[in-house]
Write a structure and sequence with these properties.
alpha/beta
């Protein structure tokens, strides 16, 4: 069985051939303006537009924890907006990350990546502003993606990893 590949670099510019899905975690309140989403928005406007419309029309769609919206941004590149955090602040209920929502979103991501024959590229999802621990997220990525034979690359940007 293959493993997750870890590299230092920018997850928005995967340097492999073939179809690629760039996966990241969004919150469930419609906020898009901090963290990895800024790197996405610098490259493509469509994922943010799609996320905002998806949230705005949530009364009549599947928007919510665990849901995923796939946005094609280039002929061979998709962005997966995965709703995996409740709100944006750490409070009495703890950090915003919701591991069960990330797990559900990764299952949907696995199906889409398999259908597309795509590799998956991501930062350490749920571990930045969402406050999650990679030691809890990594096994979910392994179970949902790697075990299905989907190539996964995790990007550490800048100095150090967590």
């Amino acid at each position: 069985m293959s493993e997750i590949t870890y590299i230092r670099g920018d997850a928005t510019v995967p340097s492999v051939k073939g179809v690629k899905v760039i996966a990241h975690v969004c919150n469930d309140i419609g906020g898009w303006g901090k963290g990895f989403v800024l790197a996405i928005s610098r490259r493509w406007p469509e994922p943010e537009k799609s996320y905002r419309a998806w949230h705005r029309e949530r009364a009549s769609n599947d928007f919510g924890l665990g849901a995923v919206r796939f946005v094609q941004v280039e002929p061979y590149v998709w962005v997966a907006n995965m709703v995996g955090q409740r709100g944006i602040r750490t409070g009495s209920k703890g950090v915003p990350v919701r591991y069960e929502a990330i797990d559900a979103a990764l299952e949907r991501l696995a199906e889409k990546a398999a259908d597309l024959g795509a590799s998956v590229h991501m930062p350490r999802i749920g571990c930045g502003l969402a406050g999650g621990k990679w030691s809890r997220v990594e096994p979910l990525v392994t179970d949902r993606l790697v075990r299905r034979g989907i190539a996964v690359t995790v990007y550490d940007h800048g100095e150090g990893g967590s």
